[in-house]
Design goal:
The complex is a heterodimer of chains A (298) and B (318). Chain A is an all-alpha fold. Chain A has one domain: MetI-like (MetI-like fold, Orthogonal Bundle). Chain A contains 12 helices and no strands. By secondary structure, chain B is α/β, with parallel strands linked by helices. Chain B is built from 10 helices and 12 strands. The mean pLDDT of chain B is 90. Classes of the chains: A mainly alpha (298), B alpha/beta (318). The interface between A and B is medium-sized, with 25 and 39 residues.
Chain lengths: 298, 318
């Protein structure tokens, strides 16, 4: 009897708190073998990208020319072979992860911040403000994105900075539109009305209802878009408008490999695989998170 | 009769759309008395839900006033308005979209208490009490809304509406999304709660069987206007407005021996609320319509015994 009572008291005390949502999401995510594998690969890549800077020296190992070792096929000494300047492709691909991951993540993050500000404010204020801003966004989307990026890079100057600005500018409208629709979808739910009717203030409604309900879909969207950014960055570099040779950006490496494709296919295969694998990992993690973040799976 | 709890006067609400202004609620006046269940009936799209939301001020009227206990709700702002909201709650039609999927049942029900600044320990106690009152289990506190059936979710919604101890609860088609067997349970629960807490209901519905069962008085609405206000019994036995009669006759009758011959059935579609007919809005569908009906808008007239009707040619009374 007393034991039972104690148990009940404990439960009541516990009811003042709340389950930890992060723990819930993690628990669900772990049950997605494919997404978990993608996560492990990606973490390994990030570690490699950071470690590469300590293991190899940029000047001597990554860009220095070794005429004697030109165009070697993959071997024990050079796992991914060597390129037409005798540089080790393995080292360059590993080192290149720094560029792609950095550009992909930074561009996505910056675009997301702009996208949230524009999209959420449009959804919230509505009216003429919404109409004007969204038409501007539509106008930007109308221009083929690759063309627009090339034009912007031409104005801003080649290189990392110009590329990130150009890519952000091109991807913000897409973000703004998606985030606007996510927020609108939440704002028009009846539970928001119910919260209003119960006397909850606007600030509390945004904090307790709107943000938590938008967070999941937005996060997933951002993760999915990282792969898009990585591909855009590689495309720009491939067209020699992004990261410049001899820097080992994957797209730039592919570009250099085109003329030697038949003679030494490994020059194209390894950077290509790296792009594919990174993009795939982000997409698969996004997939897993979509399910894990669904409140219905808690 | 006693002083009204809610007095709505000349309420007007138009919505803008691409096709023009939708006259959702157009010059509507009525009263709700404490302790009664007032049913608001009409076809889909006639402005019932909009009117309900105007009463609890989830929407702001373009003109006209709603007073609660003599206080004009339109004049309230900020924290005064939030405080007044505690006195009038709403139960929604859709038991799925009306509960935040990220909230546990306990958090959903505690929300109005939280807004009212009730301390955590007291909140937990009161939520527990409310859950018992609406027939939820204690261990449901930590479960999420999606783990419940529609009927159970509606119980959660009712508990939330009950939490701030309101005087008025607007029920916006609270049972129309539920199975018939569950409807009866929820209706009985609502009746029990009304008796226990002296609640007043504004019960919005298009289901006339449900309305007959639960309401004391009935307000019939057509295309943003009120047609008839009367005690429920009168509406079913000898209605004044042809629309009331047709609405009631259109409800399915389970008795196979029932004489279906002398039923008056509704013809045609609801006219557009953007461009309603001139004169009486019901004239395009009314068998008794005359030239007067097509030109002059009927006024609400008092027929005694709490019966009001807006019609040039009310049905003859036996």
């Amino acid at each position: 009897m007393t034991k039972h009572r104690h148990k009940r008291q404990d439960r009541l005390g516990e009811m003042a708190g709340r389950t930890n949502p992060v723990a819930d999401v993690w628990r669900n995510f772990r049950h997605h073998p494919v997404s978990m594998a993608a996560m492990i690969v990606l973490v390994a890549m990030i570690i490699m990208a950071i470690a590469a800077g300590f293991i190899w020296d940029y000047e001597t190992d990554v860009v220095a020319i070794h005429a004697a070792d030109r165009l070697q096929p993959p071997s024990a000494a050079h796992w991914f072979g060597t390129d037409d300047f005798g540089r080790d492709v393995f080292i360059r691909v590993m080192y290149g992860a720094r560029y792609s991951l950095f550009i992909g993540i930074v561009t996505s993050a910056v675009s997301m911040v702009f996208g949230i500000v524009i999209g959420a404010s449009c959804a919230y204020f509505g009216g003429a403000y919404d109409a004007v801003i969204m038409r501007i966004m539509d106008a930007i989307v109308c221009i083929p994105s690759m063309l627009l990026m090339l034009a912007l890079v031409a104005v801003l100057g080649k290189g990392m900075k110009g590329m990130i600005i150009a890519m952000t500018f091109v991807s913000v409208p897409g973000y703004a539109r998606i985030i606007r629709s996510i927020v609108l979808g939440v704002v028009h739910q009846e539970y928001i009305e119910a919260a209003l009717a119960s006397g909850t203030s606007h600030v509390e409604i945004i904090r307790r209802h709107i943000l938590p309900n938008c967070f999941g879909p937005i996060l997933v969207d951002v993760l999915m878009s990282v792969s898009g950014c990585i591909m855009s960055a590689s495309s720009l570099s491939f067209l020699s408008m992004g990261i410049q040779v001899p820097a080992p950006e994957w797209g730039a490496m592919l570009s250099g490999a085109t003329k030697l494709m038949q003679l030494s296919p490994h020059l194209a295969i390894f950077p290509g695989l790296a792009i594919l694998l990174t993009s795939l990992c982000f997409n698969l993690i996004g997939d897993g998170l979509t399910d894990a973040l669904d409140p219905k799976s808690r | 009769m006693s002083e009204p709890l809610i007095r709505a006067e000349h309420l007007v609400k138009y919505f803008k759309s691409n096709a023009g202004r939708i006259k959702a609620v157009d010059d509507v006046s009525f009263e709700i008395y404490p302790g009664e269940t007032l049913a608001l009936v009409g076809e889909s799209g006639c402005g019932k839900s909009t009117l309900g939301r105007l009463i609890v001020r989830l929407l702001k009227a373009d003109s006209g006033t709603v007073t609660l206990n003599g206080v004009d709700l339109g004049s309230l702002k900020g924290s005064a308005l939030r405080k007044a909201r505690q006195n009038m709650q709403i139960v929604f039609q859709d038991p799925f979209s009306s509960l935040d999927p990220h909230f546990t049942v306990g958090e959903v029900i505690a929300e109005p208490l939280r807004a009212a600044g009730v301390k955590k320990e007291e909140r937990v106690q009161r939520v527990q009490q409310l859950m018992r009152r609406v027939g939820l289990q204690e261990e449901d506190y930590w479960r999420f809304p999606h783990q419940f059936s529609g009927g159970q979710r509606q119980r959660i919604g009712i508990a939330r509406a009950l939490a701030p101890e309101p005087q008025l609860i607007v029920c916006d088609e609270p049972v129309s999304a539920l199975d018939v067997s569950i409807q009866a349970q929820i209706l009985n629960l609502m009746r029990r709660l009304q008796a226990e807490s002296k609640l007043t209901y504004l019960f919005i519905s298009h289901d006339l069987a449900v309305v007959r069962y639960i309401s004391n008085r009935i307000v019939v609405m057509f295309l943003g206007k009120l047609c008839e206000i009367c005690p429920t019994k009168d509406a079913y036995e000898h209605p004044l407005h042809p629309y009331t009669r047709m609405l009631i006759d259109s409800a399915p009758e389970p008795d196979p021996d029932f004489d279906r011959e002398d039923r008056m059935l509704l013809q045609g579609e609801l006219p557009s609320p953007i461009n309603p007919p001139a004169g009486c809005r019901f004239c395009t569908r009314c068998p008794y319509a005359t030239d007067e009906c097509r030109t002059v808008e009927p006024e609400m007239k008092d027929y005694g015994g709490g019966r009001l009707c807006a019609c040039h040619h009310p049905l003859p009374q036996k």
